[in-house]
Design a protein that fits this description.
This protein is mostly beta strands. It is 3% helix and 38% strand. The protein has 1 helix and 18 strands. Strands 1, 3, 4, 6, 7, 9, 11, 13, 14 and 16 form a 10-stranded parallel beta sheet that branches. The radius of gyration is 29 Å and the shape is globular.
Length: 189
C-alpha cells in the first residue's frame, strides 16, 4: 500500500541543485543634476551624468551625458555635452555631438557639433561648425591610449631640439622643451 502511494520502492536520489547564481549588480543609475526654476547658481559644473537647467546658471558645464536647458532656463557660459537640447537661452559656446534647438531656444555663441536639429523659430547667432567626429574633452576614446609624452595645455609650448648630426648611430630621440608663461613681477596690476 505504501508502495502504491509513494511510487516505486527504489527511491531515486534527488539531483543536487546548483547553488543560486548571484544576480549581477544592477547598473548604477545615471543621476540627473537639476537646477530648478527660480534657482540661481554661479560656478562650474563637471559631471558624468545628465544636467537639466530650468533656472539661471552662470559658469561652464561639462557633462558626459545629455544637457537640457529648459524653456525658462538661462546659461551664461560654455557648454560641453554628449547631446544638448536648448529650449531657453545660452550665451556661450557649445561643443557636443548632437545639438537640438527648440522653437523657444536662443543661442549667442559658436557651435561645434556632429548633428544639428532646429525647430522653426529657433535662434542661433554664431558660427556653426559641423564635423564628422567631435572629440569631447575629458572622455577618453576606447580605441586610443594616452601617449606618455603628450602634454596638453594652452599655456605650454613644445619645441623640438635637433640632435647633433655628427654620428647617426648616437642620435637620440628629439627632446621636448616645455616653457610655461608666468606673470612678470613688474607687470602693472
Amino acid at each position: 500500500m505504501l508502495r502504491g502511494l509513494l511510487g516505486d520502492s527504489k527511491l531515486k536520489p534527488k539531483k543536487a541543485e546548483a547553488p543560486a547564481q548571484p544576480k549581477s549588480a544592477p547598473a548604477v543609475p545615471v543621476i540627473d543634476t537639476v537646477l530648478g526654476t527660480g534657482a540661481c547658481f554661479e560656478g562650474n559644473l563637471k559631471t558624468e551624468g545628465n544636467v537639466r537647467v530650468h533656472g539661471t546658471f552662470v559658469g561652464d558645464i561639462t557633462a558626459h551625458g545629455k544637457v537640457a536647458v529648459g524653456e525658462h532656463g538661462k546659461l551664461e557660459g560654455d557648454l560641453i555635452g554628449e547631446a544638448v537640447d536648448v529650449g531657453g537661452q545660452v550665451r556661450g559656446n557649445i561643443l557636443a555631438r548632437k545639438v537640438a534647438v527648440m522653437s523657444s531656444g536662443r543661442i549667442w555663441g559658436d557651435l561645434r557639433l556632429e548633428k544639428l536639429l532646429t525647430e522653426e523659430g529657433a535662434f542661433i547667432q554664431g558660427v556653426v561648425t559641423m564635423e564628422d567626429k567631435v572629440d569631447l574633452p575629458g572622455k577618453p576614446e576606447p580605441s586610443k591610449t594616452p601617449d606618455e609624452n603628450e602634454v596638453s595645455s594652452s599655456k605650454i609650448q613644445a619645441k623640438e631640439k635637433s640632435a647633433p648630426k655628427a654620428d647617426p648611430k648616437n642620435a637620440s630621440e628629439p627632446k621636448l622643451e616645455i616653457k610655461k608663461e608666468t606673470a612678470s613681477k613688474n607687470a602693472p596690476d
